[in-house]
């Protein structure tokens, strides 16, 4: 029995759209009410999660959409998943929710088992985890870990802080608050907080009006597609961008302590990095004593056909830190070098040190992926879907620029000629029963759950073909 049939015997067999526009009248009414106490402007519609099931999200107007956006790429197994409901009703979850442990000071007796369930699906080469509250928080915590590690190597891991360091840090001055930098890439998205915002370069709206660190942004490769046709051109693009990375590390006004990269830039337009590029970055970071951070917040937990996208590159030696959130329903970073644990307690710390309730769900998600071999399903369905999209591209070449994501599961995207055409396509897809998201200015991205099957792909492609002809 396939995963969706086992999970979702009552899943809709096809989309149902009852309203002439989305959001429909009941959604509009409820959004107006919500807007009196909350900023409801970004909302697509108001969802009825009790009625949503499997790969279908239902709204309060009774529309049932095949969901290929999945809560901004963050639903791994589908709506009302029975395995997660079982975990939510467990005694461990009751304690985590009602007593809300502060694990740094008062860890629960079941904390080691909770974390080991997460670690069983850790990236290859990583055997430690530190927990956070969101993707942006995970990246900010990783930056802190990188800075402390970097300075400890300079100072000596067991060396006490100097009187000058203790004094100047209270004045936000060096050497206690050193001038260090994190190198990120243009078009990157790593979060909307302060340090993460400084490494984010996808859209101005994400970071306008708040102070930013003076940190460098390198060029992320822009490849020509299909990849097999442009191997030489794309290799030259890798080399061009690698030279920029190395030059920035050598010449930036502050020492570059860490480098952070998404193996596929997601919010920035589904830009892919090659195996060669990711490995060469490892060589550069080792050469210049730079901490290598891979941001797998959106690419992680199976959507690309491997649990962690950077594993396609088989980076050696393993990267230093891997951040996660979204489909894991928890957040944090994996690591393997014990020296990323600060030399003194309370340096990497907060009241809750993550969220034990979300960690329980993360462990259950990981176990389901293993037990049902969902990454293999993603590979199979992704290949099936990509071939169908290639056929549509041949039929409507002006509406499918740079189709990408081949051999990367269902992590697929393409470009429309203009932002206006992209936005119009997304609206028409909703009216034809599919909830799909965009990224960058004119890209369409597909982010279905890991339980998405061929039958769902067929429904989507039919709706897409109809929507394209209506443009």
UniProtKB/TrEMBL annotation:
Reaction catalysis annotation: 4-aminobutanoate + 2-oxoglutarate = succinate semialdehyde + L-glutamate
Keyword set, alphabetical order: Aminotransferase, Pyridoxal phosphate, Transferase
GO cellular component: a single term: cytosol
Cofactors that this protein relies on: pyridoxal 5'-phosphate
Enzyme class: transferase
Signal peptide: none
One of the Pfam families matching this protein, by short name: Aminotran_3
GO molecular function: 4-aminobutyrate:2-oxoglutarate transaminase activity; pyridoxal phosphate binding
Keyword Transferase: yes
CDD domains from the UniProt entry: OAT_like
EC number(s) on file: 2.6.1.19
GO biological process, one term: gamma-aminobutyric acid catabolic process
Entry-linked SUPFAM superfamilies: PLP-dependent transferases (SSF53383)
Chain residue ranges for the region called Disordered: 1-28
PANTHER family: 4-AMINOBUTYRATE AMINOTRANSFERASE, MITOCHONDRIAL (PTHR43206:SF1), AMINOTRANSFERASE (PTHR43206)
Homology family: Belongs to the class-III pyridoxal-phosphate-dependent aminotransferase family.
Self-association state and partner proteins as the record states: Homodimer and homotetramer.
The protein's name: 4-aminobutyrate aminotransferase
Organism this protein belongs to: Torulaspora delbrueckii
Lineage of producing organism: Eukaryota, Fungi, Dikarya, Ascomycota, Saccharomycotina
Gene, per the UniProt record: TDEL0D02960
């Amino acid at each position: 029995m396939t995963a969706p049939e086992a999970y979702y015997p009552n899943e809709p067999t096809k989309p149902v759209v009852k309203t002439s526009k989305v959001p429909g009248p009941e959604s509009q009414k409820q959004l107006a009410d919500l807007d009196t106490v909350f900023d409801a402007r970004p909302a697509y519609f108001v969802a009825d999660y009790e009625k949503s099931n499997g790969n279908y999200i239902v709204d309060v107007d009774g529309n049932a959409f095949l969901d290929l956006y999945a809560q901004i790429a963050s639903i791994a197994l589908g709506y009302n998943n029975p395995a997660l409901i079982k975990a939510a009703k467990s005694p461990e979850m009751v304690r985590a929710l009602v007593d809300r442990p502060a694990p740094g000071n008062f860890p629960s007796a079941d904390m080691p088992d909770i974390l080991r369930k997460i670690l069983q699906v850790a990236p290859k080469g990583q055997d430690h985890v530190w927990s956070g509250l969101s993707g942006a928080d995970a990246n900010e915590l990783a930056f802190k870990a990188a800075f402390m590690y970097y300075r400890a190597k300079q100072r000596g891991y067991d060396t006490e802080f100097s009187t000058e360091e203790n004094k100047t840090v209270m004045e936000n001055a060096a050497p206690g608050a050193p001038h260090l930098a994190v190198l990120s890439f243009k078009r990157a998205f790593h979060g909307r907080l302060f340090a993460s915002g400084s490494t984010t370069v996808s859209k101005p709206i994400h970071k306008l009006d708040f102070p930013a660190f003076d940190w460098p942004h390198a060029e992320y490769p822009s490849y020509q597609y299909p990849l097999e046709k442009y191997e030489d051109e794309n290799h030259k693009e890798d080399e061009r961008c690698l030279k920029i990375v190395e030059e920035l590390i050598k010449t930036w006004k502050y020492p570059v302590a860490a480098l952070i990269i998404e193996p596929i830039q997601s919010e920035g337009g589904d830009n892919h990095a090659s195996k060669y590029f990711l490995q060469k970055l490892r060589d550069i970071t080792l050469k210049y004593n730079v901490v290598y951070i891979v941001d797998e917040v959106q690419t992680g937990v199976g959507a690309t056909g491997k649990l962690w996208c950077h594993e396609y590159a088989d980076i050696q030696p393993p990267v230093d830190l891997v951040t996660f959130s979204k489909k894991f329903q928890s957040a944090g970073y994996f690591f393997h070098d014990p020296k990323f644990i600060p030399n003194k307690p309370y340096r990497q710390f907060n009241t809750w040190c993550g969220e034990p309730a979300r960690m329980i769900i993360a462990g259950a998600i990981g176990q389901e992926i293993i037990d049902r071999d969902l990454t293999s399903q993603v590979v199979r369905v992704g290949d099936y879907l990509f071939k169908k999209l290639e056929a549509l591209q041949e039929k409507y070449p002006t509406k499918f620029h740079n189709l990408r994501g081949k051999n990367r599961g269902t992590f697929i995207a393409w470009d429309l000629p203009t932002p206006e055409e992209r936005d119009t396509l997304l609206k028409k897809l909703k009216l034809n029963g599919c909830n799909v998201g965009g990224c960058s200015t004119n890209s369409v991205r597909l982010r279905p759950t890991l339980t998405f099957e061929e039958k769902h792909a067929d429904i989507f492609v039919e709706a897409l073909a109809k929507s394209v002809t209506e443009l």
